[in-house]
Specification:
Order of helices and strands of chain A: HHHHHHHHHHHH
Distance between the termini of chain B: 21 Å
Largest sheet of chain B: 6 strands, mixed
Largest sheet of chain A: none
Structural class of chain A: mainly alpha
Largest interface: A-B, 21 and 17 residues
Number of domains of chain A: 2
Number of domains of chain B: 2
CATH topology of the largest domain in chain B: Rossmann fold
Strand order of the largest sheet of chain B: 5-6-7-3-8-9
CATH architecture of the largest domain in chain A: Orthogonal Bundle
Oligomer: heterodimer
Strand content of chain B: 15-25%
Distance between the termini of chain A: 36 Å
CATH class of the largest domain in chain A: Mainly Alpha
Shape of chain A: flat
CATH superfamily of the largest domain in chain B: P-loop containing nucleotide triphosphate hydrolases
CATH class of the largest domain in chain B: Alpha Beta
Order of helices and strands of chain B: HEEEHEEHHHEHEHEEHH
Radius of gyration of chain A: 25 Å
CATH superfamily of the largest domain in chain A: MetI-like
Chain lengths: ~290, ~260
């Protein structure tokens, strides 16, 4: 009882020691928790993989139905040059689609801000764009732009643009009114106000949209490659997945899928890092609660 | 009617002349009715009154942030000064969180196209006036409320205005910080030829700072009385506890109630 009381006092004291050097007890506890938090999912996936490996071996499941993790690993190593080239092509298409969606999406949002007629005219169709199944319009895009890179990039763009438009629009329209008034008082022109106030104010929103779009651009590129990819390694991951499926190379199919998801993750993490770097001085999302 | 009399008899230059200003909102509410006021150059004038008396609206009309329904506002009639030489300090500091303190202060110069070197030098000089030169490269989030307000004042001073409009600038600050800022503001004011129009709901603040206190009442917003505070500047803490101070506070409080 006494000891429990003593401990409670210690923790409340250490909690109060803010700002300064973190209290030793709390720090190691936090540190240990962080290690557990990172290690747990790793242990979990290793556990699942072990069960998978063991199950496939014990049940003698045919490879084309469900390959063991070791088969996937071997297929990935064997087809590595192809896999790398395919991933490289998908990366190029997704990057282009993403960058174009950022440029175009921001431009559309700016136009929507500048004129209520444009806003009223466009808004419903921006939503419609979001609800049309991309797989359904992809063949149309191929008819118009021909198979290959153009169509793939365009499909990636269609998939990735909506979060950019909607978030930028939200950011531009939620500018602090007092600051708008301040700019008006300084006789700032419309575009000066956009550049010096509305744009920086909207930046955290835009970066949020870009984080969502980054992963979607990769998915869009792969969908594009399904319908518009050219044969061989040039077709990207989408094409590699299709051909592996047709040839029943299930192990390589798995390897391609994993590569695609790694690519999407790398994309997302890069954009998240850029976002953090851009906002690190001033935005709550990048500062972290412990520093304030 | 007789509210303007105290100034029209003097020969000193007028900074602001307000003639029969009326402000009516679209819903018919009369925010200001028949306002006559004249403010001399270099004076410190406060507008006090209960909420709804239109003191902020009157200030915004003077500053050109709001339009009067009828009547005229003339800023330094006849002289070269105009609205370009007026600055406004809002109730909140209104700083841009992504700009450093220095860049926030330099903003008005940036918008009017002052070259980069000059605007840095002037922003720095302005920050020195409010005692924050050491924080030039900090971001607003790193500053306390009082410091943010100082940055806001430095930003208002950077364009070297003739007129400074302040809308309850210290309302959100604690007593100690507020008093320190009072002294700093008075010292900045006495070192320049600034005319300050200051809106507050605190009678104490108004009496301590001002040469004239304009007491307003609500429904409709109008000027009840203009009370001169004859105490000489620089004013010290002793003034706050003097019988004269108490008398003026009592007079204005009675006028308002």
């Amino acid at each position: 009882m006494m000891q429990a009381n003593g401990q409670a006092t210690t923790t409340s004291v250490t909690m109060m020691a803010k700002d300064g050097v973190p209290p030793i007890g709390g720090s190691t506890k936090k540190h240990r928790q962080l290690v557990y938090k990172t290690a747990t999912p790793v242990v979990f996936i290793l556990f699942l993989l072990a069960i998978w490996q063991l199950g496939v071996r014990l049940l003698n499941t045919p490879k084309y139905l469900l390959p063991a993790p070791s088969d996937i690993w071997r297929a990935a190593l064997k087809g590595f040059p192809d896999l790398l080239q395919a991933a490289g092509n998908t990366f190029a298409a997704a990057l282009l689609g993403f960058l174009l969606s950022v440029l175009l999406g921001t431009a559309v949002a700016l136009l929507m801000m500048a004129s209520k007629w444009i806003r009223w005219g466009i808004q419903p169709y921006a939503v419609v764009l979001q609800t049309i199944p991309v797989v359904a319009i992809a063949p149309l895009v191929v008819i118009w732009l021909g198979p290959g890179m153009n169509s793939i990039v365009f499909i990636s763009l269609i998939v990735a643009i909506f979060p950019i438009i909607s978030n930028t629009n939200l950011g531009l329209s939620s500018t602090d009114r007092n600051l708008v008034q301040l700019m008006r008082m300084y006789k700032s022109g419309t575009w000066t106000t956009v550049w010096k106030l509305r744009f920086p104010y909207a930046l955290p929103y835009m970066l949020g949209g870009m984080k969502i779009s980054s992963g979607m651009a990769v998915i869009g590129a792969i969908i594009g490659e399904f319908v518009a990819g050219i044969g061989g390694g040039k077709g990207g991951l989408g094409m590699a997945i299709t051909s592996a499926a047709v040839q029943m190379q299930t192990s390589f199919l798995f390897a391609c899928t994993i590569a695609a998801s790694l690519l999407g993750m790398a994309f997302y993490l890069s954009v998240a890092a850029i976002s953090h770097f851009t906002l690190r001085h001033w935005h709550e999302s990048a500062i972290g609660s412990d520093k304030d | 009617m007789n509210t303007t009399a105290y100034l029209e008899t003097t020969a000193e230059a007028e900074a602001i002349r307000i003639h029969d200003v009326v402000k009516q909102y679209e819903n018919g509410t009369l925010a200001l009715s028949g306002i006559h006021l004249s403010i001399r150059e270099g004076e410190f004038v406060s507008l006090v009154g209960p909420s709804g008396c239109g003191k902020s609206t009157l200030l915004r009309i003077m500053a050109g942030l709001d339009q009067a329904t009828s009547g005229q506002v003339q800023l330094q009639a006849g002289s070269a000064a105009n609205k370009e030489q007026a600055s406004f300090v809002f109730q909140e500091a209104n700083l841009m969180p992504w700009r450093t303190v220095l860049a926030n202060v330099a903003l008005p110069l940036e918008i009017s196209g002052v070259p980069s070197e000059e605007r840095k030098a002037r922003a720095m000089a302005s920050l020195e006036k409010v005692g924050l030169a050491g924080y030039a490269n900090s971001y607003p989030r790193q500053l306390s409320g009082g410091m943010k307000m100082r940055v806001s004042i430095a930003r208002a001073l950077v364009s070297e205005p003739k007129l400074l409009f302040m809308d309850e600038p210290f309302g959100a600050l604690d007593e100690m910080t507020r008093h320190r800022l009072h002294e700093e503001l008075l010292s900045i004011w006495s070192q320049s030829k600034l005319t300050i129009v200051f809106v507050t709901h605190s009678v104490f603040e108004a009496v301590y700072l001002s040469g004239h206190v304009v007491a307003m009442e609500a429904h409709p917003g109008r000027i009840k009385q203009v009370v001169p505070i004859e105490e000489a500047y620089p004013r010290t803490n002793a003034f706050m506890t003097s019988p004269v101070f108490g008398e003026k506070v009592r007079l204005i409080t009675n006028t308002l109630s």
